[in-house]
Design a protein that fits this description.
Blueprint: H1 3-17, H2 20-28, H3 30-33, E1 48-53, H4 55-58, H5 67-75, E2 78-83, H6 97-104, E3 113-118, H7 121-124, H8 146-160, E4 165-169, H9 178-192, E5 195-197, H10 203-209, H11 226-244
Parallel strand pairs: 1-2, 1-3, 3-4, 4-5
Helix pairs in contact: 5-11, 6-8, 8-9
Length: 245
């Protein structure tokens, strides 16, 4: 299956696997949506936080309920959830991260923080990694590459909101190129000074989540279940507290 068809199939299967009635029941379930808050979490109440990503941010295979929705229910954040399954950072299609950021998130609405998913889709769809630009000038960012698109996103967020940024990596990606992307993310961090929540390199978390008997991941061993998102939400909460205090 080529990269374009893979992305289309992800979108189709995402719609099939999501049941709005089930989603409504999940959102109303106290046990699913709440966890013991980290000390200092009150600072998150009412904060408007944008989440730009693909399937994990969306809540693929968990009825579109992800850690984002759990944080909204538990901590009172006001999320701007811009996520479409199967989409990439790099490229020129209307569904790339950068194009959705520009077209779908209103710059007139202030943001307190910005969260970016470092998706596995770029690797699985064979997008070139690219290089870190020598300058901060937008003309230097090759958005046909993953790193160039990331830099364009960071510059856009800085210019329009100048808010703290968190980049998170995915649990248990099986794509061999993802490790290179994660390492490049750390190199990019030196330039753009964002925070990283590195789920990919968290051995304890990966060991717990990849044991299917625990029920944290779906059978694809990549997308969290509701229980898995419930496990991840406090990790994001701690990062956001540090960013906003």
């Amino acid at each position: 299956m080529n990269a374009q068809l893979s992305g289309i199939w992800s979108l189709i299967s995402d719609q099939i696997s999501s049941n709005p009635i089930t989603r409504k029941k999940i959102l109303a379930n106290h046990e699913s949506m709440h966890f013991d808050r980290t000390p200092g979490a009150a600072i998150l109440n009412g904060k408007r936080i944008a989440f730009l990503g693909s399937s994990v941010t969306k809540g693929f295979k968990s009825h579109h309920v992800s850690f984002v929705d759990i944080l909204a229910s538990n901590d009172g954040i006001s999320p701007v959830k811009e996520a479409i399954s199967g989409t990439t950072l790099a490229g020129s299609s209307r569904t790339t991260y950068l194009n959705r950021l520009i077209n779908n998130i209103d710059t007139q609405i202030p943001l307190d923080a910005f969260v970016l998913q470092l998706s596995t889709n770029d690797g699985s769809q064979h997008k070139p990694l690219g290089q870190i630009a020598a300058t901060y000038d937008t003309v230097a960012f090759n958005t046909a590459t993953t790193l160039g698109a990331m830099e364009a996103i960071f510059r856009y967020v800085h210019d329009h909101w100048d808010c703290p940024v968190l980049v998170y990596t995915c649990v248990n990606p099986r794509h061999p190129e993802y490790a290179k992307l994660v390492q490049s993310g750390y190199e990019l961090q030196k330039k753009w000074k964002f925070r990283i929540l590195d789920l990919y390199n968290d051995e304890s978390l990966n060991s717990k989540m990849t044991d299917l008997q625990n029920g944290y991941l779906n059978s694809d061993l990549l997308h969290p279940t509701i229980k898995g998102n419930h496990l991840l939400a406090p990790l994001f909460e701690k990062q956001l507290i540090q960013m906003l205090k």
